[in-house]
Write a structure and sequence with these properties.
The complex is a heterodimer of chains A (409) and B (589). Chain A is an alpha/beta fold and 409 residues long. Chain A has a single domain (15-195, 245-397), classed as Alkaline Phosphatase, subunit A (3-Layer(aba) Sandwich). Chain A contains 13 helices and 12 strands. In chain A, strand 3 and strand 4 form a beta hairpin. Chain B is 50% helix and 4% strand. Chain B is mainly alpha-helical. Chain B has helices at residues 52-57, 73-82, 88-106, 116-123, 126-129, 132-148, 153-183, 187-199, 210-222, 230-238, 241-246, 260-269, 279-288, 304-311, 320-331, 377-388, 391-405, 412-424, 429-438, 440-445, 454-466, 476-484, 508-521, 546-552, 561-567, 573-582, 584-587, and strands at 292-294, 338-341, 346-350, 353-355, 365-367, 370-372. Classes of the chains: A alpha/beta (409), B mainly alpha (589). At the A-B interface, helix 1, helix 5, strand 7, helix 7 and helix 8 of A face helix 23, helix 24, helix 25 and helix 26 of B.
Chain lengths: 409, 589
């Protein structure tokens, strides 16, 4: 159909009043300005979920354990001894060498702690089931509400004036699902503009006058507009190049800007940890992946600026992997893992929580790290300290969870 | 070997923040088959005026010069509740026969009748050409071959080929489903197929074999029963390998029980969370379900003696080849349904389904007050009867239907009424729906708008924008748009399925996603008309003008005055479509 024909036909629908193009300025329905007042807490929490179950024994190396070196002939990270060997943190634990320029300085500044033997009570060893368990944060073995993730419940407890949650993911994850309406912004697409021209915006503005959905549309566009503007401003600054970088490093730089400027409760997910085959040791695929994440987090710490002092980043994964290497130079699904806790105000420079000697006799089912530090105790302790949540509120965030406090902040 | 959300093998550890599978635009390993171009004429056994043929023939007449009066707004809403969205054919049919006859037609189940190019696109799919048992055995064989292959380039190639096949299959199963939803004249049957697939939800990335099994699940377990008896529907899901994998019943054996399926079968599929069962019932039901599993091993897992016994009737001296062919026949369901008896109950292999008496707890059980004697697979049948006919099930199902078709908080007396119809009709789904559509509560709900879920929004857009022209033959973009709006087919991880309540979708995140997708949905996506297994780029097309014509004719009462005024400012068909898809009017049904 030719354009002229179209206009002829379209005329039959055009009723009496013309669209008030001028009055419906691009700002009214389509954002602009900050929609809500700044949150009443400057504490910020970011959860980073490593999906796939990363091999914690090659991140935090139990180098005093002979058993580690016996059972990982092809993939063990060599004992601290100079180049391409583990970086000693304590007399028992050492860091993967690929983290020398990213996580090691944070640990030395006491802004990074590790919680070893961490995990959940989910024994399924299934990725998605354990992820579901962790994200729901509800007791196993009973009826679970699949529409209620624990970060959403945390945001509810903090109330609308204290929490600005956002998932930096392409879809809203289970952990932020729930009664509170939470936004998500895909980090590879964070500077997305309105899909409409100004003229189309004006037309839509007329359509939505008096419509019940108007407020929600306005809220969405305002949120997106604020985020895109914050990132554009950042790009114009001296360090702006880092913000527009591709890959994980750029993604986490953008997260830093948005956590600094707009949100205070965030969620990020990073994939590619399911290393059943040829994962490597001091170098290789897992080493490179850890390096990228370490540099990403160091960049995030930098990008947060002064806000880093009030920021806590928790890095978790659904489970750890088998302690012994398998026949393919990889590791399989296990249980206990290592969580990372980073931030300017974190009591870092320590390996926190319950621990046992790493030996064949202490393994869970003779194959995995045991879980001595439940995820709800780790998070619950942080929530208590960061937000001053009392036990009754904590019970609403983690129903049936036991209290715990590792004193990490 | 793993093929799950974002959980790739080591050879594919690309940095990515997204755990979502992104589907590439064109299929890598599509296979062409000479398709049978059947006409989509009258369905045998159905009078012509009740079949899709009459509905399709209505296309011939232009919608902007209606020979029938425009539909009242309530009837447009009726149309949008019963179908995946008003298109010219369905609107015309409703206008011709009136609401009562239209509802009666839609309540009649029958074969899916699709336009020839769509039939051809489906016929070219592996999931349509190759029986599911063969596909799964072939995947299994490839997996085994990879596990024993020496490390090296050759093994990586085998792995890549297998991953490509998984990807192809999981695309095909979505495509097949979406093409039917868009094109079938039996719209209510398609809608109820989705409703039940969502009720008996299975997450497609749970297991390597799930994608091909999903195609079979939807086609053979769900669709034939979508408007039939609930008991048959329930039984079809209980015995289906996709379900036995998804809710871990393959792990449920005597002495090593797994309660996952038992719990969801009670809580989600039948009685409901407040259906009156106790933890003890979950345990007892899980005992009944011990030994129900899936056999993907070909001959391997059938013990040699058992095979020998079973094959004695064929040959006194079975060769390995004869054993293999016997196992194949069993797996294909062509052989005897029961092999040699175990000590307690018969061993059963049917297709991929296996009941292994050695793993079954054959002691007596007590479920919801009923005594169940140990009798192998017969226990399961008894339990399906108990659950399908339980008053709590009637209430649970009635409530979900009322939420889906009426409102987030349906009136109690409606649920009571529907429960009674459900129980009196022995769980007849069409009868229960008929009572729902005849109810005062439903009639009243047609007086106001009801926020759409993404399925209704995206499929409604497709039917409206492209409905009267060249048919969509590639639903991959449609699958992607659904993903962008958070309701990708078979992608919900958790077993309760996507929420039916409007409240769960009516948020600014959802609205933004709809605005973002309005442009490509409105007519700048030529891939829709390019079969996905064919190579090459799709030629660009002009955006169609059907939606505007329909809204100036049959559907003219469905738009508010401000929206109509605003649409008058559109300067092209594409812009008109895009603005309509972004309008508050189109967000609701």
């Amino acid at each position: 159909m030719h354009r002229r024909d179209f206009l002829k036909h379209a005329g039959s629908l055009a009723l009496s009043r013309p669209v008030l193009a001028g009055a419906a300025a691009a700002g009214s329905l389509f954002g602009g300005g900050r929609l809500l007042a700044a949150p009443q807490t400057d504490a910020r929490l970011l959860v980073v979920f490593l999906r796939g179950g990363y091999d914690s024994a090659n991140l935090l190396v139990p180098y005093s354990s002979d058993f580690y070196y016996e059972t990982r002939p092809a993939i063990a990270v060599p004992r601290p001894s100079g180049k391409r060997s583990a970086l000693a943190l304590t007399t028992d634990w050492a860091l993967h060498p690929y983290l020398e320029d990213s996580l090691l300085p944070l640990y030395q500044k006491k802004q990074l702690a590790f919680v070893a033997f961490a995990g959940s009570d989910d024994l399924s060893r299934s990725h998605f089931e354990t992820q579901t368990t962790l994200e729901l944060g509800q007791a196993l073995g009973g009826s679970r509400d699949y529409r209620s993730g624990f970060l959403n419940r945390l945001a509810q407890e903090l109330g609308e004036d204290r929490s600005r949650p956002c998932a930096f993911t392409s879809e809203l994850p289970l952990i932020l699902n729930g009664r509170l309406d939470v936004h998500n912004i895909a980090m590879n697409d964070a500077v997305r503009d309105s899909p409409f021209s100004d003229r189309q915006k004006a037309i839509l503005d007329v359509m939505y006058q008096g419509a019940g959905l108007r407020d929600k549309v306005h809220e969405g566009f305002a949120m997106r507009h604020t985020a895109a503007n914050a990132l554009r401003r950042e790009m114009k600054t001296a360090g702006g190049k880092a913000v527009s970088a591709a890959g994980l490093a750029g993604d986490l730089r953008r997260v830093a800007v948005l956590m600094r400027e707009q949100f205070n409760l965030g969620f990020v997910e990073v994939g590619g940890w399911d290393t059943h085959v040829n994962q490597g040791g001091a170098s290789g695929v897992l080493a490179s992946r850890l390096q990228a994440l370490g540099q990403g987090l160091a960049g995030l710490a930098q990008g947060m600026g002064k806000a880093w002092d009030k920021t806590v980043v928790v890095v978790v994964s659904e489970f750890g992997r088998t302690f012994r290497e398998n026949g393919n130079g990889g590791t399989d699904h296990g249980r206990g893992t290592v969580y990372w806790v980073l931030g300017g105000g974190v009591r870092g420079g320590q390996i926190a929580g319950e621990q046992v000697k790493v030996a064949a006799s202490t393994l869970n089912d003779d194959r995995d790290f045991p879980v001595l530090n439940d995820y709800r105790q780790v998070f619950g302790g942080l929530f208590q300290r960061v937000y001053g949540l009392d036990p009754a509120r904590l019970q609403r965030v983690f129903p049936g969870g036991k209290a715990g406090d590792l004193g990490l902040v | 070997m793993h093929f799950r959300k974002g959980l790739c093998s080591t050879h594919d550890m690309r940095p990515s923040l997204s755990r979502r599978i992104r589907f590439a635009r064109s299929a890598a390993a599509g296979v062409l088959l000479c398709a049978s171009f059947q006409s989509y004429g009258a369905v045998p056994g159905v009078p012509p005026d009740a079949s899709g043929a009459a509905v399709r023939d209505a296309r011939a007449v232009r919608a902007d010069t209606p020979d029938v009066a425009p539909l009242p707004a309530e009837q447009v809403r009726l149309l949008n509740r019963l179908t995946w969205g008003a298109d010219e054919a369905s609107a015309r049919r409703l206008a011709q026969v009136g609401p009562d006859a239209f509802i009666a037609e839609q309540l009649q189940p029958g074969p899916v009748d699709l336009p020839p190019p769509v039939q051809a696109a489906i016929a070219a799919m592996q999931v349509a050409r190759i029986p599911v048992v063969e596909t799964v055995l072939s995947l299994r064989t490839q997996r085994d071959a990879i596990s024993v292959a020496p490390a090296g380039e050759a093994r990586e190639k085998m792995r890549d080929a297998l991953n490509q096949e998984y990807l192809l299959l999981s695309r095909e199963v979505r495509q097949k489903s979406l093409l039917r939803m868009i094109h079938s004249p039996r719209q209510l049957q398609e809608k109820m197929t989705w409703f039940w697939v969502n009720h008996f939800h299975i997450y497609a990335e749970k297991h390597d074999y799930t994608p091909p099994l999903m195609a079979d699940y939807e086609e053979n377990a769900i669709r034939p029963n979508a408007l039939g008896k609930f008991r048959d529907l329930l039984a079809a899901t209980v015995y289906h390998p996709a379900m036995l994998f998804y809710l871990d019943n393959v792990e449920n054996g005597k002495g090593r029980r797994n309660e996952n399926y038992a719990r969801e079968l009670l809580e989600l599929h039948t009685l409901g969370a407040d259906g009156g069962h106790q933890q003890a019932d979950v345990i007892e039901l899980s005992r009944v379900l011990t030994g129900l599993g899936v056999n993907t091993d070909g001959s391997a897992r059938l013990k040699a003696e058992r095979l020998k016994e079973a094959s004695a009737a064929l040959s006194d001296n079975p060769s390995p080849a004869a054993l293999l062919s016997l196992a194949r026949r069993h797996l294909a369901g062509a052989g005897p349904a029961e092999t040699a008896s175990g000590p307690k109950a018969p061993h059963v292999l049917h297709g991929l389904f296996e009941f292994d008496p050695a793993r079954h707890d054959n002691e007596p059980k007590r479920l919801l007050g009923h005594e169940i004697a140990g009798s192998g697979l017969a226990e399961v049948d008894q339990v399906i009867d108990i659950l399908a006919r339980h008053p709590s099930t009637a209430r649970h199902i009635s409530r979900k239907l009322a939420v889906y078709f009426v409102s987030d908080d349906p009136p109690a007396d409606l649920i009571e009424h529907l429960s009674r119809v459900f129980l009196d009709s022995d769980g007849d789904i069409a009868a229960t729906l008929g009572a729902l559509f005849a109810s005062e509560a439903f009639r009243q709900s047609l007086g106001s708008d009801s926020f759409k879920d993404p399925m209704q929004h995206v499929l409604g857009a497709m039917r409206l924008v492209y409905g009267a022209g060249e048919p969509i033959v590639n639903a991959q973009p449609v699958a992607n748009w659904l993903g962008e709006m958070g309701q990708a087919l078979y992608q919900r991880q958790t077993p309760e399925g996507y929420p039916l309540e409007r409240q769960a979708w009516q948020n600014s995140r959802q609205l933004l996603a709809r605005f973002d997708m309005a442009r490509p949905m409105a007519g700048t996506t030529p891939e829709l008309f390019h079969p996905f297994h064919e190579k090459g780029d799709a030629p660009r097309r002009e955006a169609p003008d059907h939606a505007r014509l329909l809204y100036s004719g049959l559907l003219q009462n469905a738009l508010s005055a401000p929206t109509r005024r605003a649409l008058g400012k559109a300067d092209s068909a594409h812009e008109w479509n895009m603005l309509l898809l972004s309008s508050p009017d189109f967000m609701s049904r």
